[in-house]
UniProtKB/TrEMBL annotation:
Domain annotation Sec23/Sec24 helical: ranges: 771-870
Gelsolin-like domain residues: 891-962
Comp. bias (Low complexity): 133-150, 226-244
GO terms (BP aspect): COPII-coated vesicle cargo loading; intracellular protein transport
Record-level Gene Ontology MF annotations: SNARE binding; zinc ion binding
Pfam families: Gelsolin, Sec23_BS, Sec23_helical, Sec23_trunk, zf-Sec23_Sec24
Ranges of residues in domain Sec23/Sec24 trunk: 426-669
Source organism: Electrophorus electricus (Electric eel)
Keywords attached to this entry: Cytoplasmic vesicle, Protein transport, Transport
Protein name listed in UniProt: SEC24 homolog D, COPII coat complex component
């Protein structure tokens, strides 16, 4: 049990009061307890005696069930997916015999010495080390950086302890990419050797990255190769002794598109059954189906690694974050079984008395079925009489496969009144549409667009499966400097407007008739929506308020005693005299200074207060912004960012150009499945616990994740830390419980369970890593950190940690090889390209050329992302469409995201989950242009094209089918942008070519890899 070191708060993590104390995670009542069991008084819990790994009863656990959580199910054919009826009466599954689980592999204790890594050791206690800038050389991520990063003198040849002798090393130019060819001779003095890992296992990949090696002090450089980070990639190897060497082949460095394709080939189309502990799922980019056999689907939970290190020392040593990204309400594809809803009646869900974990496959029934031992805290509990069931000869309950909570990783319980506010069943939620009717929005036609759309959209409010209509009520507010509420009661012939001009003391002037059922009030509402654009058509009012608007929404929900969502459509900096008035504080001189972080910090005061009120009321705020200039997005988006809300931004909105994109965003947002008034709790088995949480969430204490709402796209990233030793036998168990109100007003508990492996071998951890999940974690933790630390420091920490993780692998897991080789764990071999992409994102790049609002927007949009979304954001898909096979159904293979892959005569799609660009080379053949656009040449295309005509020819149809396939994979709508090579708008597109040097700073992938390699070598010597 380590109380110091690793559990210390990292310098840029959120404060964790009580972190050092074990019992905080177990049932401690939150200061404000609104909900029954979440706030139930904590059971006294005696921490385990130091060194005592298992309580006595654990012996029984191990003997009887032989590592219960790892049991294997016989594989099920795809067509025999369980046909359980949704309410707890599944048919018998064909599981007649359960093969004994294999005994835990005997692991040899790894004799790992502490890494001797120079000055870095001082950082090793914390995830994100102290804000000391890298002394030298200049980091490639530093945006103060048009100067070359200077290489420190290279390690003299033969100095590297693991280095085989020179003559065995092939010259750079002879190095085949990642091939295990036999080494060939090389002049001994060639530094930049690169050598395939001649001993390479499936775990490592040896890379050719030598070219900076020739930095003998004082040597002349020939200048950077074209396109490289200025000076960052000094020296073609030509100046060096030995045979002439060519520029490093970009194909020789690990390719994300290849890695994605390999996984698709290997695991695509498969049925992924979740029966094994610590099983690494297919990539998010791979198409596969999931069958729940005791662990949550990767659609709900994905981990940075599926094998946790047994001790905190090992965790510290490797610095690989232990985290899971939870998307609790993720959409389940139609071909997979939806979650079962378990109803235990008035008794409610069965929970461990001590840690309050919910009944799940990790509970071990003993004593003939009369008692069960909690897999999380080991407490032995009585089985309630009504829940009793006999055990079979294997110690399993006879009804195991009839009860989702005993055999599945994910399921829902209907919650009892104990789980409801004030012990009353909740009312159905309400959606309030709040429209800024100031001059800009009227003039642009936005108000009319919104009103017209709502007339049809409100027919499509989400409803419970099987329900006739939606239970969600709707209400309408318009505003500029003052607010207008509308009475749309069905009995009225005409809607009535009520004006509140005292914005300092916001109240809702009507209760009856404000929130109504759309079906019942359709005529009045349509009448209102028809009138609103006309009512304000002559407005000259350009000033707006903002905080009072949110206040009004919360007050309305309070009065109606329900949760809900505000849809706010707003265009300008709220400068009218009112609470929450904002001023322009966009000072780009702060970029790259200590104070840069203030640009991203929200103005406190009223917005902080509103956040709390919204969370308490279950009021989610979605913000649709239409700015023509700076609007202090960091502050305006603060309430949405803590209430499970979404922010959309349409700069310089024009109905013609952006109207369709906005409407499809709005439609998706209104229709998407969502839960309200949510509270999430992540419980773990003994030895580790959740310490840090990132997402569109609010935390009032260290354990309860509060979300005014959570929809199917929102993910929470949770980091874990050790507080004791983990056992290889038991593994690491995680249970995420989400209490929420459904769209029909039912209180539900959704439970996701996941069991991970534990190992004392770091190689197991590296083998089980998931790069996509890692980068999600790093992005969120860094974006959180940049509120408290200079952005430059955050970038440096990211680079250092990248090097550290890879150096630790190299030192402890890879076969001995020359220090000049870069060896990456197989599961992380494209991690550097993602990390480099993260460093170049608008939020982190530190360029005064980028708009502050854009940077804040990017930062906030990533904070609630799931792994699918962050993966494609950090490595967009670039798809050639000039040479596609029109006859084939498939989406053409993506190519590396680099300018080098473009051609003047080509056409390419690039998608990153937010935009789809169609890039047209300037020499793109006229027949392609004709087929796509029905115009004779590129010159005939306008510059502001935002849509692609659907034409009656094979190429056009194929292109649309690709775009359609892409859109279907994305949870949010994607904006179409058509870009001609050399046009001004091409800059927008080029920003996303993440393997290239950044437009606003930041290294190319190749340069970054070289830099990281050099850092690794420094760490190892
Ligand atoms: Zn327990």
């Amino acid at each position: 049990m380590s109380q110091q070191g690793y559990v210390a708060t990292p310098p840029y993590s959120q404060a964790q009061p009580g972190m050092g104390g074990y019992p905080t995670g177990f049932g401690a009542p939150p200061p404000q307890s609104h909900y029954g069991h979440y706030g139930a008084p904590a059971q006294p819990f005696a921490p385990q005696a130091a060194g005592m790994k298992f309580p006595k009863s654990r012996t029984y656990f191990r003997q009887v069930s032989s590592s219960f959580p790892t049991f294997r199910y016989p594989p099920l054919p795809a067509d025999s997916a369980p046909a359980m009826s949704p309410y707890g009466q599944p048919p018998q599954r064909p599981y007649h015999s359960m093969p004994q689980a294999t005994p835990p592999t005997q692991q040899i204790t790894n004799q790992m010495s502490a890494m001797n890594i120079g000055g870095y050791g001082r950082f090793s206690d914390t995830l994100f080390p102290s804000p000391n800038p890298i002394q030298s050389p200049q980091s490639p991520t530093s945006s103060a950086a048009p100067q070359p990063f200077q290489m420190s003198p290279p390690t003299p040849m033969g100095h590297a302890p693991l280095s085989p002798q020179g003559p065995q090393l092939p010259p750079l130019s002879a190095c085949p990419p990642m091939a295990a060819s036999p080494p060939v001779g090389v002049p001994p003095m060639v530094m930049p050797n690169c050598q395939p890992d001649s001993l390479s296992s499936s775990l490592s990949v040896a890379l050719a990255v030598g070219s900076y090696g020739g930095q003998v002090p004082g040597s002349q450089m020939a200048g950077p190769p074209a396109g490289a980070f200025p000076g960052a990639f000094p020296g073609g190897a030509a100046q060096m002794a030995g045979p002439p060497q060519k520029k490093l082949d970009p194909d020789s460095i690990p390719s994300t598109t290849q890695v994605i394709e390999d996984d698709q080939v290997k695991r695509g189309g498969q049925l992924y059954t979740t029966n094994l502990r610590g099983q690494v799922p297919p990539f998010v980019t791979t198409s596969f189906s999931v069958q729940d056999q005791g662990n949550a689907s990767p659609r709900f939970m994905r981990c940075t690694t599926y094998s946790f290190p047994c001790t905190s020392d090992l965790a510290k040593q490797c610095q690989v974050p232990l985290a899971t990204i939870i998307k609790p309400l993720a959409s389940v594809p139609k071909n997979e079984t939806p979650l079962y809803i378990v109803n235990h009646g008035e008794a409610g869900p069965i929970r461990c008395n001590r840690c309050k974990a919910y009944m799940c496959p990790f509970m071990l029934f003993i004593d003939g079925g009369r008692r069960y031992q909690c897999g999380f805290c080991n407490c032995v509990n009585e089985v309630p009489v009504q829940y009793f069931q006999h055990l079979d000869h294997m110690g399993r309950r006879l009804d195991m496969y009839e009860r989702p909570e005993l055999s599945l990783g994910s399921y829902e319980f209907t919650a009892t009144l104990d789980y409801c506010k004030n012990n009353k069943p909740p009312n159905p939620p309400a959606y309030i549409f709040v429209i800024d009717v100031s001059y800009n929005n009227i003039k642009s036609g936005l108000v009319k667009l919104i009103c017209d759309e709502l007339k049809t959209l409100l027919d499509q409010l989400p409803k419970e499966e099987g329900a006739e209509g939606s239970a969600i009520k709707v209400g309408f507010v318009t505003y500029n400097k003052i607010l207008h509420f509308y009475n749309v009661k069905s009995a009225l012939a005409q809607p009535q407007m009520m004006v509140v001009s005292d914005v300092a003391e916001m109240f809702v002037p009507l209760l009856d008739g404000f929130l109504v059922n759309f079906q019942e009030s359709r005529a009045v509402i349509n009448n209102l929506l028809e009138q609103i654009p006309d009512m304000f058509s002559d407005t000259n009012e350009s000033e707006t308020v903002f905080a009072p608007v949110i206040q009004a929404g919360v007050e309305a929900l309070k009065a109606a005693e329900c949760s809900g969502k505000l849809f706010i459509f707003h265009s300008s900096l709220p400068m009218a005299e009112a609470p929450g008035k904002l001023k322009n504080r966009d000072d780009r001189k702060l970029v790259n200074t200590e104070k840069e972080k203030t640009l991203f910090q929200a103005q406190r005061g009223i917005y902080e207060q509103l956040t709390k009120e919204c969370v308490n009321q279950g009021c989610c705020v979605d913000l649709f912004l239409f700015p023509n200039q700076y609007v202090d997005l960091a502050t305006m988006a603060d309430v949405p960012a803590h209430t499970g809300g979404s922010v959309y931004k349409y700069s310089n909105f024009q109905v013609q150009v952006d109207g369709q994109h906005f409407l499809s965003d709005l439609r998706q947002d209104v229709k998407k499945s969502i839960g309200f008034d949510a509270m999430m709790r992540v419980r773990t088995s003994t030895g580790f616990r959740a310490t840090d949480f990132y997402g569109a969430i609010y935390m009032n204490n260290t354990t309860d994740v509060e979300m005014a709402a959570v929809d199917c796209e929102k993910a929470v990233t949770v980091e874990f830390k050790h507080d004791d030793t983990l056992s290889e036998d038991v593994g690491a168990l995680i249970q995420c419980a989400l209490l929420y109100t459904s769209i029909s007003g039912q209180r539900r508990l959704r439970v996701h369970n996941l069991s991970l492996a534990c190992s004392s071998q770091l190689s197991d951890l590296y083998k089980s890593c998931e790069t996509d999940a890692l980068i999600n974690f790093f992005a969120k933790s860094a974006y959180h950190a940049m509120l408290a630390q200079p952005v430059k420091v955050v970038r440096e920490i990211l680079v250092k940690q990248t090097a550290h993780m890879l150096a630790c692998y190299r030192k402890n897991c890879a076969s001995p090889s020359a220090a000049s080789q870069l060896i990456l764990p197989d599961a992380m071999k494209v991690f550097p390209v993602y990390m480099n992409s993260l460093l170049k994102t608008p939020a982190l790049v530190g360029s005064a050329e980028l708009s502050t609002d854009d940077r804040a927007f990017h930062r906030l949009s990533v904070m609630a992302m799931g792994v699918e979304e962050s993966q494609v954001l950090f490595y967009p898909r670039l798809i050639p469409v000039h040479s596609m096979d029109v006859a084939s159904e498939a989406v053409p293979s993506a190519v590396r995201c680099s300018e080098e892959r473009l051609s003047d005569t080509g056409a390419f799609l690039l998608e990153n989950g937010q935009c789809i660009f169609l890039w047209l080379g300037q020499a793109c053949p006229p027949d392609i242009i004709q087929n796509f656009f029905n115009v004779p040449s590129l010159a005939h295309l306008g510059t502001d094209m935002s849509s692609l005509p659907e034409l009656d020819n094979g190429h056009s149809k194929k292109l649309h089918s690709i775009i359609c396939a892409i859109s279907q994979q994305r949870s949010s709508s994607t904006k179409m942008v058509i870009v001609k090579q050399k046009d001004r708008s091409e800059m927008l597109f080029r920003q996303h070519l993440v393997e290239d040097k950044g437009l606003y700073g930041g290294a190319s992938y190749m340069d970054f890899l070289c830099y990281v390699h050099r850092e690794i070598r420094q760490l190892l010597t």
